[in-house]
Amino acid sequence: MAKDPKRNSDKPIGGYTDRWWMPRFWCGMNFLTFTGVLVRNRFQVHPSRIPMALVLLITSVANSVLTLLQTLVYGWRIARTEVREAPIFVIGHWRSGTTLLDEMLILDRRFAYPNTYACYAPTHFLVSDFWMRPWARFLLAKTRPMDNMPFGWDMPQEDEFAVCNMGLPSPYLGLIFPNRPPVYQEYLDMEGVAPESLRRWKKKFLAESKRDPRAFKCYACEFDQDCPVDKGGKCSWQEEDNVGD
Description:
Elements: H1 31-40, H2 50-80, H3 98-105, H4 116-120, H5 125-135, H6 159-165, H7 195-209, H8 219-224, H9 236-241
Helix pairs in contact: 1-2, 2-5
């Protein structure tokens, strides 16, 4: 295969290689979730990764405090929220175009979506989003290194990251210790998951879906940067379809 003369093979393509300060998704875990991951993997942290493990440990304590704060402020409202419409799940193999399909679907004003920050900090984004997201913008690249797709705290994101940061079983947890055998593969299609385990998973996933509607915006409003939901009002699509009442 001919070598692309325009590409410098010595130049990093992006990601953590040349942006070591970029936050890992696991920085959104609380203390119990992160220590549980360490225990399951027998604390087999490579010496070169100990500093990052300490960073994750510190952020996990902060996340636990913020989670408690969100529970005190919004817990009763989340518990009373009803999910009236069935969700739409986009399922597919990695690198098969699921991100593009997701972003095409949410162009429909009837749909809302969790953004990157909501998936990064699923247990406290209601109380931390307004002050955390603005100053943390510089920590992320504008595009993903693997496919050059737009990337940022405001962009739609896979809720599977929220699932594992909430402490639910997820195959994505295997990414933290990539040299270990794959984990929770049965949760890819839910076949083979014990009924009681599936019940617990559904309960916590539903809790994620019941977050305050103001934390989600229709994609069209995201582009306009003037979403009425941010101001306590309703988008036109909510007025028409009575979504979020």
